[in-house]
Amino acid sequence: MIRGEVKIALVDDHTLFRTGLKGLLEQHDDFSVVADVGSGEEFLALLPELEVDVVFMDISMPGIDGSETTRRALQLRPELRVITLSMYGDDHYYKLMVECGASGFLLKDSDIEEVYAAVEATASGDSYFSSTLLGMLTRNMSSRITIDTPSDEDALSEREIEILVEVCRGLSNQEIADKLFISKRTVDKHRANILEKTGCKNTANLVVYAIKNRLVEI
């Protein structure tokens, strides 16, 4: 849950896009745009003195790109929440952005309600994928070829990883049960265990977890 005003920074090398996004964000009563810059270098220079909660980060920029800017920013401010802004065809960057610490992913042509939802989710500590982008990623997602034996009781079992991958692909519990030839009740139990072990709350959180822990390929 968001408490108080969310302070937002925009980092994108297209001035017209930033101007439009800033205007839309400031229509929301609980959002305030506190920085509006055209490069990673500018943002990193401002960051030590900047009060900011959420950053919209363009993936592809001249100079320091979005992934490196994200990595450096989170070294300075680990609590910062970064929403990746991308175009169609940028999907090869998503794994890198997850590994660098981004927690939200939006296509640049997302509607404003989805932009608001991304800010609210990430500011509250959750992950967020635009519905279009999530569908695109999960369709192309595959599990790792090899799965390590869990080394402690909090690690996911091989069966839990199988189910996690299918959840990330968007399958319902009944569809997973049918695919793996097990009962829906068994899937329900495994899914509850997965959420407890990973601390995830929704499919977007699970996708980020799976990518970050290299349980899937995209």
Q: Please state the overall shape, judged from the principal axes of the Cα atoms.
A: elongated
Order of helix and strand elements from N to C terminus: EHEHEHEHEHEHEHHHHE
Q: Estimate the mean pLDDT confidence.
A: 86
Q: Could you describe the largest sheet, including whether it forms a barrel? A: 6 strands, parallel
Unreliably modeled segments: none
Strand content: 15-25%
C-alpha-based Rg, rounded: 18 Å
Label the structural class. Answer: alpha/beta
How many DSSP E strands? 8
Q: Given the structure, what is the number of helices?
A: 10
What helical percentage do the residues reach?
40-55%
Distance between the termini: 30 Å
Strand order of the largest sheet: 2-1-3-4-5-6
Provide an overview of this structure.
The protein is of the alpha/beta class and 218 residues long. Helices cover 46% and strands 16% of the residues. It has 10 helices and 8 strands. The protein has helices at 15-25, 40-46, 66-76, 94-100, 112-123, 131-139, 158-168, 173-180, 184-198, 203-212, and strands at residues 6-11, 31-37, 54-58, 81-86, 104-107, 128-129, 142-143, 216-217. Helix 4 (94-100) links the parallel strand 4 (81-86) and strand 5. The longest helix is centred in the last third of the chain and has 15 residues, at 184-198. The model has no long low-confidence stretch (mean pLDDT 86).
